[in-house]
Structure formats: C-alpha cells, structure tokens
Amino acid sequence: FSSGAENGINILFGSEQYYVFTLKYHVNNPSISQGISQIALPPDTSFQKIVYTSIDPKPDKIESDTDGNWIATYTIEAQKELTVTATGVATIYLKPTVQVSVVKPDSVYLQEKLYWETSNPEVQRLAKELKTPRAIYDYLVRTYSYDYSRLAMADQRRRGAAATLQSKTDALCQEFTDSFIAIARAAGIPARELNGFAYTENPRLRPLSLVGDLLHAWPEYYDAQKKLWIPIDPTWGNTTGGVDFFSKLDFNHLVFAIHGVSSEKPYPAGVYKIQGKEGRDVEVKLSSIGQEVARLLSVSAPTMLRPNTVTVRNLTGSSWYDIPIFLRSQPVLRFTNKTPSTVTLLPFEQREVEVSAYSTNWISKQKGSVTITIGDESVQYETTTGSIDIGLAVGIGFGLSVVAAGCVLVFGSRFKRAVRR
C-alpha cells in the first residue's frame, strides 16, 4: 500500500453465489380452539432468488405482505405443536437481477417505530447534518464500536437508535441498523431493516451471533432515481476496518425477513422456538451449483360456485413473475377490464383469476367456448351467453361442504437466546 494501509480490501469474483439451506420453524397453539399460525419464509428480493425444494408440511396458503415478505399460513389443532421444515437453494446476485415488484415507499417508510426514534433530538440533529445515505453510513462506521463482549452475555436485548447514540462503544449489528434507519427516516430517506443469515469465515472481521442461530441484521434505503431498495452493511464496514459495504454489498447476505412497516415483524427463521427445542434451526451452506426450475402451472376451469373464475396453481418451489394471460372465445365475447393481463405466483401458490365477459349479441342466447391461456397452460370450457350480462355459465356438478370453526391467531414464540446479530 502506498496509502490507506489501515483499511481492508474486499475482492468479489463472479456475479452470483449459491447456497443450500434447511430452516426449521417451531410453532404451537396453546389455546383450546383450532388456531392459525403464520411464519415468514425467505423471499425473493431484487438481489436474491429462492427456489424451495420442499416445504413440509405444505402451508394452507402463501401470500406476500407490503414489504415483500412471503407469509405461510398453517392451521394448528388445539394444544398442538407443529414443526415446519423448509429446504431450498438461494442465489445471491451482486446486481439487481430478480424481477420482483419493487415496493415503492410511501410515508410509512418515514414513520417513527419502536427502536427507530425519528423524533429524538439527537436523531433529528444528525439527520439535518448528514442528509444522505452515504453520510449516515460513514458516520456510523466512523463513530460506533462493535462490542464483542456482548455476544457472550445472556441478555442481548435490542436497544434502539436513541439509546445507542448515547453509548456508541457497545453496539451490535442491530444497533448499527436501527441507528441508520432512524436517522435516514428523520432525513426524509425511506429506510428499512433486512434480517437473516450472513456467511462469514472470520467472525472477528464479520461478526455474527455466537449464541443460538447465526443471524444478522443490516439496513437498506430506497434510491428514488434507481427506483430500487439498496442494501448496505455499516456493521461490517466498521468491523473490517473500512471495507466498503455501501457502494456494493457482497454474496454473503441472505434475507430471511424484511422489516419496514413494522420494526419487529415478521420474525425471521431461527427465531421460531419452543421451550425444550433449543437446537439449531438454521443451516446454510455454500453450493457450487444453483437450482434450475422449469415453470410448471396448472389451470382449472370455473365451477358453478365461481362461474367467472379460473384457478391457477404454481406447482414449483420458485416464484414466477408477470405470467401473461390470453383469452379467446368462440363466438366472440368481449372481456371486461376485470381480467388481468398478467399474474404473479409465489412458490406452491394457488390463485383465483377473474374472467368476466359479455356478449355482443343482445338478443339471443348462444353456446360457445372460452379458452384461457396462462403461461404455457390452457383450459377450454363451454359457455352459454345471455342477452344482457352473461358471466360464464359452466355445467359442472359438484358437492361442497363448509366447516366453520373459531380460530385464534398463533405466532411462534420468540426464544430469548435466538437473537439477531
């Protein structure tokens, strides 16, 4: 080095890295009624692609929340426990590659939350002084100190931004992250937390929790010009002696959960614990190969109960985005704008697609057929057109039974020693 010998160097090779993972979620229903439990599965982001080889047992449904988390819902019988095991392959990219729908932030991503005290006087002062994401990142890397001694303590409670700004010498990754988000939001910069796994072979330079599962937290901010959420890691910027984890991240950060609307939920994998089952629930290993998955869908025709709706199922553990929908009819029908032009399906998701149409013949009824093509799959079925508003009448007999039961919402308990570092 001719200059800057005190700083570290980070060299990245290639454009992507593969990981295989096994995650376990322990949830229970202590009530005397049938209950519902929800868990957060690692989602796709602009920088990571997830392919599930198995989710056992299969959830009742998988949905995406406002932040882009994948929320799996399970029904649990009264006073029963359930362990969900998810296995798969994650591909991490240096550049935004995955075609996810980027959440455009509104005022929610500037709001004060628990641990993100935007109204705190010191947070407000720093927001006016620093103003940009880079300036906030540099300030935290320069002025905060990572406290390795806290890793061995039983009590590793999250302190939040305001308390950490009063004591900058004993921070952990959560405090670096909370401080960045609070200052950024106070400065009018949308910011949120990423929580998950970070691969490291040197826990001194890139520290993780030494208690429970290996979890890590890092922030991201929204770049309005790029229309993209940009992940950064001020913790590792600090502990590596100034390696730049702002301009470009790396292949080592695997997102389990995104916190923007809430500063705490959904809980990431590794935090769903039940007393007596304190083993490691997160296993992530480097892999030399990725997971290629052919798009495989099934499309079912409408039924008499839902005459204007087709059911499309994703039969794979990969998410598919903007799958085109094409409609044809004989005789010619006009389809209303209620029918979407594309559909996005999460892993193993089942979705209902509304297909509303009306006849151009206002006088007589006609028999005909409708063909709906979603991706590479098609379904054709007979219709009867009416003189005014026809819908799609399908002569399919079936029996239906509905069982109504009181349900309670049950979340996995958070085990004290499963902490995020």
Structural key phrases:
5 helices; disordered C terminus; 21 strands; 421 residues; 4-stranded antiparallel beta sheet; single chain; 4-stranded mixed beta sheet; mainly beta
Descriptive account of the structure:
- The chain is mostly beta strands and 421 residues long.
- The protein has 5 helices and 21 strands.
- The strands form 6 sheets. Strands 3-6-1-11 form a 4-stranded antiparallel beta sheet, with no helix packed on it.
- The protein is elongated, with a radius of gyration of 25 Å.
- The C terminus is likely disordered.
Summarize the structure.
The chain has 421 residues and is mostly beta strands. Helix content is 11%, strand content 34%. β19 (366-374) and β20 form a beta hairpin.
The helix/strand order is: EEEEEEHHHHEEEHEEEEEEEEEEEE
The percentage helix is 10-25%
User: Strands of the largest sheet, in order across it?
Assistant: 3-6-1-11
Query: Major beta sheet, specifics?
Result: 4 strands, antiparallel
* Residues in β-strands, percent: 25-35%
Count of helical stretches: 5
Would you tell me the overall average pLDDT? 85
Radius of gyration equals 25 Å
Indicate the structural class.
mainly beta
Q: What distance lies between the first and last C-alpha atoms, to the nearest angstrom?
A: 32 Å
Low-confidence stretches: 387-421
Sum up the overall morphology in one term.
elongated
Please tally the β strands and state the result: 21
